[in-house]
Design goal:
339 residues, alpha/beta, Rossmann fold, Helicase, Ruva Protein, domain 3, Arc Repressor Mutant, subunit A, 14 helices, disordered N terminus, binds adenosine-5'-diphosphate
Length: 339
């Protein structure tokens, strides 16, 4: 892939619909405090004709980290190159991006917590002094050359801020944590994106789709696309409350936004394991899946929704989970016995 192509391209391995992604900060919904702080930093950098400081975004998937990495360079009027942490296996994978930087360009590194130590250490001088040390030649002819870089802005994104080392974290002048979206903000995203998808949606249907979208814009977009398809094939293209409910029911997404896998987890914990406490390995084995899938993809939302507790003795279903699954808790159920 040519460099021109990379610079103008959307990020790789991103299955989001680019047409739904806001391209300016003003088009982004929610995250108001974050946007306000970024706008001040951008304006100040522009007034000083200086490069914008490095920015680190952390937060769960689908909340807008990559979207910010699209919008910020657009505000600055500079190009952006998208890199992914796991693809940077050695310093040589990063060097071409650094040496070919355009003035004040943005470099975006997704999943930055996954870059190896050797690459991380290489980035320290690049971020701090805009220079890198390159060893040219081999054996006794090897020489270290100091290569000056054009000033640039690094935007890092991570779902695991805790896995970043202190020295790397400290080199970001701006650090922003992205929170889950309110129902109002998510409803607004659904409404706007329905317009972008050229499909009519009633207000109550937009609320319904948003309410089942786990407070996450990427999930809302996926639900909306499915509801749009359903409306097109079964309801003359218009999304009413009834159509939205029918579509989501068919996709097995319930009123809390749980999908089939989430409910299988709860069913295993509640019906098979009497509500716990049960080790995640036991739950995974009963569900015929692996613990990583449960820990990464299923449990975060169940924990956030207060449907399960993670205790030293294992997972426990909460009274809310029993109620949601229409099950009576056993008399000796231990919920509430843990701090
Ligand atoms: P992340 O990089 O955090 O995983 P993305 O930035 O890729 O998440 O967001 C996923 C999708 O959600 C985007 O394509 C965009 O359509 C939508 N989205 C995210 N944040 C916002 C926002 N603040 N306003 C409107 N849409 C958003």
């Amino acid at each position: 892939m040519s460099r021109e192509k990379i610079l103008s391209n959307t990020p790789p391995a991103d299955d989001d619909d680019p047409s739904l992604r806001p391209s300016k900060l003003a088009e982004m919904v929610g995250q108001r405090d974050v946007i306000a702080r970024l706008q001040i930093a951008i304006q100040a950098a522009q007034q000083r004709e200086d490069v914008l400081g490095h920015i680190l975004f952390d937060g769960p998937p689908g909340l807008g980290k990559t979207t910010f990495a699209h919008c910020i360079p657009a505000e600055l009027g500079v190009p952006v190159e998208f890199l992914s942490g796991p693809s940077l296996k050695a310093p040589k994978d990063l060097v071409p991006s650094l040496t070919n930087l355009r003035p004040k360009q943005v470099l975006f590194i997704d999943e930055i917590h996954r870059i190896p130590k050797s690459v991380e250490e290489y980035m320290y001088t690049a971020m701090e002094d805009f220079r890198i040390d390159m060893i040219l030649g081999e054996g006794i002819n090897a020489r270290t050359h100091n290569f000056k870089l054009r000033p640039f802005t690094l935007i890092g994104a991570t779902t695991r801020a805790g896995m970043l080392t202190g020295p790397l974290r400290d080199r970001f002048q701006i650090r922003e944590h992205l929170d889950f979206y309110t129902l109002d903000d998510l409803t607004e995203i659904v409404r706007r994106n329905a317009t972008k998808l050229k499909v009519e949606i009633t207000d109550d249907a937009a609320v319904e789709v948003a309410a089942r979208s786990r407070s996450t814009p990427r999930v809302a977009n996926n639900r909306l696309r499915w509801v749009r398809d359903f409306a097109q094939s079964k309801a003359a293209g218009k999304i009413t409350l009834e159509v939205a409910q029918g579509a989501l029911q068919m996709a097995e997404i319930d009123a809390l936004g749980l999908d089939r896998q989430d409910r299988r987890y709860l069913d295993t914990l509640i019906r098979v394991c009497f509500g716990g406490p049960t080790g995640i390995g036991t739950i995974a084995a009963t569900m015929n899946t692996v613990t990583d899938t449960l820990a990464d993809e299923v449990e975060p939302f169940l924990l956030r929704s207060e449907l399960i507790l993670r205790t030293p003795r294992g997972r426990i279903a909460t009274p809310k989970a029993f109620a949601h699954m229409n099950h009576e808790p056993p008399a000796n159920h231990p919920t509430g016995m843990f701090d």
